[in-house]
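help with these tokens:
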Amino acid sequence: MTDEESVLTPRRPAYATLLSWGFLIMAFGLLVLTLGLVFATGSIFTALLGGAIAAFGGMFAAFGAFLYYFTLRT
């Protein structure tokens, strides 16, 4: 195997990874939030859990956007 690309080198920038994972986690959180509000109306725990997961994913996506902004500035 004569590949010169190392396993340790990232294939995409850090901001792209943070944005993509952040939006995926946020979408999953919004799905849990919606399903909790629709199907588990007696238990508010599922809706709160979905909101917390969505906020956690939003933090990842916001930090990725922050890094992307400063990558473009330099």
Summary: The mean pLDDT is 86. The chain has two helices and no strands. Helices lie at 14-39, 45-73. The two ends are 37 Å apart (CA to CA).
